[in-house]
Specification:
This protein is an all-alpha fold and about 70 residues long. The protein contains four helices and no strands.
C-alpha cells in the first residue's frame, strides 16, 4: 500500500498543483474558470485512491490464495 500512497500523494499534490497552474495559465488567471479544490477534497481523493488500490489488490490475492500450494508450484 505504500507505493499507492506515495503515488497518490505525488499525483495529487505536486501533480495536481502543476496541472492547476497550467490550466490557470491557459485561462488567463481567471479564477472563475478554474478553481482550486478544497484541501479536504484533495485529502479525500488520496484516501479513496489508496482504498481502491487495496480493494483491487485484495480480490486477486484472495482468489489466488484459495488454490493449493502444490498445484501452484
Amino acid at each position: 500500500m505504500l507505493p499507492a500512497l506515495v503515488g497518490a500523494v505525488l499525483g495529487v499534490f505536486p501533480g495536481g498543483w502543476a496541472l492547476f497552474a497550467a490550466v490557470n495559465a491557459i485561462t488567463g488567471g481567471d479564477s472563475d474558470k478554474a478553481t482550486l479544490p478544497a484541501p479536504w477534497q484533495l485529502i479525500a481523493m488520496v484516501l479513496v485512491i489508496v482504498a481502491a488500490v487495496a480493494a483491487l489488490t485484495a480480490v486477486p490475492a484472495h482468489l489466488g490464495g484459495r488454490r493449493p500450494v502444490t498445484a501452484t508450484l
